[in-house]
Specification:
Blueprint: H1 2-41, E1 64-67, H2 71-82, E2 87-91, E3 104-105, H3 107-115, E4 128-130, E5 132-137, E6 140-145, E7 157-159, H4 162-174, E8 179-192, E9 195-203, E10 208-212, E11 215-218, E12 236-247, E13 256-260, E14 267-271, E15 276-284, H5 295-304, H6 310-322, E16 326-332, E17 343-345, H7 360-375, H8 384-397, H9 399-416, H10 422-436, H11 440-449, H12 456-475, H13 481-505, H14 507-511
Parallel strand pairs: 1-2, 1-11, 2-8, 5-13, 11-17
Antiparallel strand pairs: 3-7, 4-7, 5-6, 8-9, 9-10, 12-15, 12-16, 13-14, 14-15
Helix pairs in contact: 2-4, 2-7, 3-7, 7-9, 9-13, 10-12, 10-13, 12-13
The protein binds flavin-adenine dinucleotide.
C-alpha cells in the first residue's frame, strides 16, 4: 500500500514538474515566435544604449560601423560583436529580403559558418541539404558528389530562401548587447584628411544623421554606391540570370544542384525548400528579352524548356505561366582594393564572381574568418594609418580561398557556354567527360568548387588536365592535320580563358602568398593589449 502511495505521490509531483517545464518551454517558444514575427516585419530593431546616435562626434561609442546587413554584414556584425566589439550596423531595409541570389551555400561556406558560430542560422528555415551536383549534357547526365567523407556528418551544402537565412543572422547578431542594428540608408563616407571617420545616413523617418567609428566596414552588396573610393572599379557583366520557382516537382537527383549544359549557356536547378526548386536560366550579355511584352516567357518556353530534364518540364512551364519571373545581372569584380585608413570593403561590394558555382557566400564568410582573426588581438583601433597598413595582409591571406573560387567560377562559366567555335565545344565536351570519369577527376574539381579544398594549384592542374584530355581524344587513335589544329586551338583557348582571370586575381598573391610582405604584417604594437575585447556570451 505504502509503495502504491509513494507511486501516486511520485507520479503527481512528476506530472506537476512536467507541466511546469512544458509551460516554461511554451512561453519561451512563444517569445521566440513573437521576436521572429517582429524581425520579419522589420519593427524590432532599435538602438540600445547607444550614445552615438546623431552627431555624436568622433568615435563616441562604436568600434565598428557596418554598412549593410546582408550575408556579409550580418555575419560580420555577429562575429565582431561576439569578440566584444561595439558594433553599429546600418541597413537600408530590415524586412526579410526576397531575392534570387545567395540561395546555395557550398559545404566550404557551411564550414566557415560553423567557425563563426552561425550554423544554427540554416536551421528552422526549411533549408535543404545539398550533397553534390548532377551535370546534364545532350541527354546524358553524371552525378558529382561532394567529397564529404573526411568531414563531420553535419557538413554538406545548404540551400534555402536567401531572405530567411539573412534574417536569422540579423536576429542572432541583434541578440548581442553590444551590436546595434538600425534601419537607414548610408549616403556617403565621412572623410577627413584621407581618413574615413564614419558615415552619413538617412533614417527610415527621413532624418539625416552622422555616425562615427574608428573602422567603417562597407558591405553594401553588388550594387554598392560606397565602394567607388575604396577600390578600382572594373565590374563586368557577362550575363544575367532569369529566376523562377518550380513547385510540386522532384529533381532527378534529390538533394543535388543540377547544371544543364544548355545552348547558349547553363541552366541551374536546386531546391530552396522542401517544396520549391529554384531555376536560374543564364542569358549571355546584358540585354534580356522583355518581361512586359511576353518576349521573356516566349523565350523560356521555346528556347529553354526543350533543353531541361523531362521531369521538370511541366513545373517549369507552370512557373512561367504563374509569371513570377525575376532577373539579376551576373557581375564579376576582381578584388582590387585602394587601402584607405578607417575603411574596409567586404562581400560583393569588394569582390564578385559569376554565380554559376554558387561561391559568393563562401568567399564572404571565409573573408570574415580571416578578418576576425586579424582583428582579434587588437584592443584599440583608433590609429587608422597603422590599422590600415596592418589590414593590408587581409588582401593576401584571403587569396587562396577567394581566388580559387573566383577563378573556377569565371573559367567554368566560359567553358560551359556553347560556342560556334569547334575547339571551344571540344573543351566543353572534354570537361563533361572528364568529370564523368569519376575518382579524382570528379572529386578534385568538386572539392575546389565546394570550397572544401580551395587550392589554386589544384585548380590549374585540373583545368589543364581537362584540356589535355580533350586534345588526347582528338589525336587518338590517328591524328589528322585538322584535328591537330583543333587541339592546338583548344589549348590556346583554354589558356585564353584561365590566364586573364588569374592575372586579374594577382599571380603572386594567388600562388605565392608567402612571398608578399603583407603576409607577415604584425598587429601594430601599441594597439595590442592583454585586455583585448572579451568574447560576448
Ligand atoms: C543571380 C545570383 C545568384 C547567386 N547565387 C548564389 C548562390 O547560390 N550561392 C552563393 O554563395 N552566392 C550566390 N550569389 C552571390 C551572393 O548572393 C553574394 O555573394 C552575397 O549575397 C554577398 O553578400 P553581401 O552581404 O556582400 O551582399 P548582400 O547580401 O546583397 O547585402 C547587401 C546589403 O546591403 C544593404 N545596403 C545596400 N546599400 C546600402 C546603403 N547605402 N545603406 C545601408 N544598407 C545598404 C542591402 O539592403 C543589403 O541588405 C549569387 C549572386 C547572383 C547575382
Amino acid at each position: 500500500m505504502v509503495t502504491v502511495d509513494k507511486y501516486i505521490v511520485g507520479t503527481f509531483f512528476a506530472s506537476l514538474l512536467g507541466s511546469f517545464l512544458l509551460y516554461v518551454l511554451r512561453q519561451k517558444t512563444a517569445a521566440k515566435h513573437r521576436k521572429r514575427d517582429q524581425f520579419q516585419s522589420g519593427q524590432h530593431y532599435q538602438i540600445r544604449n547607444d550614445p552615438t546616435t546623431g552627431e555624436g562626434g568622433p568615435h563616441s561609442g562604436s568600434d565598428v560601423i557596418i554598412v549593410g546587413a546582408g550575408v556579409a554584414g550580418a555575419a560580420l556584425a555577429y562575429t565582431l560583436g561576439k569578440d566584444g566589439r561595439r558594433v553599429r550596423v546600418i541597413e537600408r531595409d530590415l524586412t526579410e529580403p526576397d531575392r534570387i541570389v545567395g540561395e546555395l551555400l557550398q559545404p566550404g561556406g557551411y564550414i566557415k559558418l560553423i567557425e563563426l558560430g552561425l550554423e544554427d542560422c540554416v536551421e528552422e528555415i526549411d533549408a535543404q541539404r545539398v550533397l553534390g551536383y548532377a551535370l546534364f549534357k545532350d541527354g546524358k547526365n553524371t552525378k558529382l558528389s561532394y567529397p564529404l567523407e573526411k568531414f563531420h556528418s553535419d557538413v554538406s551544402g545548404r540551400s534555402f530562401h536567401n531572405g530567411r537565412f539573412i534574417q536569422r543572422m540579423r536576429e542572432k547578431a541583434a541578440t548581442l548587447p553590444n551590436v546595434h542594428l538600425e534601419q537607414g540608408t548610408v549616403s556617403s563616407l565621412l572623410e577627413e584628411n584621407g581618413i574615413v571617420k564614419g558615415v552619413e545616413y538617412k533614417t527610415k523617418a527621413g532624418q539625416e544623421l552622422k555616425a562615427y567609428a574608428p573602422l567603417t566596414i562597407v558591405c553594401d552588396g553588388c550594387f554598392s554606391n560606397l565602394r567607388r573610393s575604396l577600390c578600382k572599379l572594373e565590374v563586368e557583366v557577362p550575363s544575367c540570370f532569369v529566376g523562377l520557382v518550380l513547385e510540386n516537382c522532384e529533381l532527378p537527383y534529390a538533394n543535388h544542384g543540377h547544371v544543364i549544359l544548355a545552348d547558349p549557356s547553363p541552366i541551374l536547378f536546386y531546391p530552396i525548400s522542401s517544396t520549391e526548386v529554384r531555376c536560374l536560366v543564364d542569358v549571355p550579355g546584358q540585354k534580356l528579352p522583355s518581361l512586359a511584352s511576353g518576349e521573356m516567357a516566349n523565350y523560356l518556353k521555346t528556347m529553354v524548356a526543350p533543353q531541361i530534364p523531362a521531369e521538370l518540364h511541366d513545373a517549369f512551364i507552370a512557373a512561367i505561366d504563374k509569371g513570377n519571373i525575376r532577373t539579376m545581372p551576373n557581375r564579376s569584380l576582381p578584388a582590387a582594393p585602394c587601402p584607405t585608413p578607417g575603411a574596409l570593403l567586404m562581400g560583393d561590394a569588394f569582390n564578385m564572381r559569376h554565380p554559376l558555382t554558387g561561391g559568393g557566400m563562401t568567399v564572404a564568410l571565409s573573408d570574415i574568418v580571416v578578418l576576425r582573426n586579424l582583428l582579434k588581438p587588437l584592443h584599440d583601433m583608433t590609429d587608422a594609418d597603422s590599422l590600415c597598413r596592418y589590414l593590408e595582409s587581409f588582401y593576401t591571406l584571403r587569396k587562396p580561398v577567394a581566388s580559387t573560387i573566383n577563378t573556377l567560377a569565371g573559367a567554368l562559366y566560359k567553358v560551359f557556354c556553347a560556342s560556334p567555335d569547334q575547339a571551344r565545344n571540344e573543351m566543353r565536351q572534354a570537361c563533361f567527360d572528364y568529370l564523368s570519369l569519376g575518382g579524382s577527376c570528379s572529386t578534385g574539381p568538386v572539392a575546389l568548387l565546394s570550397g572544401l579544398n580551395p587550392r589554386p594549384l589544384s585548380l590549374v592542374l585540373h583545368f589543364f588536365a581537362v584540356a589535355t584530355y580533350g586534345v588526347g581524344r582528338l589525336l587518338l587513335p590517328f591524328p589528322s592535320p585538322k584535328r591537330l589544329w583543333i587541339g592546338a586551338r583548344l589549348i590556346s583557348g583554354a589558356s585564353g580563358i584561365i590566364f586573364p582571370i588569374i592575372k586579374a586575381e594577382g599571380i603572386r598573391q594567388m600562388f605565392f602568398p608567402a612571398t608578399m610582405p603583407a603576409y607577415y604584417r604584425a598587429p601594430p604594437a601599441d594597439e595590442i593589449s592583454d585586455s583585448a575585447p572579451q568574447e560576448s556570451k
